[in-house]
Amino acid sequence: MQQRVAAIPTVQIDNQRVTVTEWRFPPGAETGWHCHGYDYVVVPQTSGQLLLEIKDGNRTVDITAGQSYTRSVGTEHNVVNINPHEFVFVEIELKP
After folding, report:
1. 40, 79 in Cβ contact below 8 A?
2. CA contacts within 13 A on the Cβ side of 24
3. Backbone Cα Rg of the chain
4. 8, 54, 9, 14: which is closest to 34 by C-alpha?
5. 37 with 18: CB under 8 angstroms?
6. Which of 43, 51, 64, 94 is 20 to 30 A from 86 via CA?
7. Could you tell me the domains of the chain?
8. Spatial separation of the C-alpha atoms in residues 23 and 96, rounded to whole Å
9. Which long-range contacts link 11-14 to residues 24+ away (Cβ below 8 Å)?
10. What is the pLDDT of residues 40-74, one digit of tens each?
């Protein structure tokens, strides 16, 4: 199995209310397994497919630029770019 490269996070805002992070995924890049400590919103900047590795198995999801979605605190996964192009999204973590 080929070793994956790490996705590149750039924190744009981090204050008492939110953390806003731009994630850049070269082809084949991954976030690494993690568990979200806050509810969050994802704003895709590019379109394509992402592989979600989760405890119950893997699933591929279609993502469209500009079509935001939310997930709840406790979401645990590894996100992998399976596109032949860079994939970018902005993640907004909502702090209590």
Report:
1. no
2. 6
3. 13
4. 54
5. no
6. 94
7. 8-94 (2.60.120.10)
8. 23
9. 12/90
10. 999 999 999 999 999 999 999 999 999 999 999 99
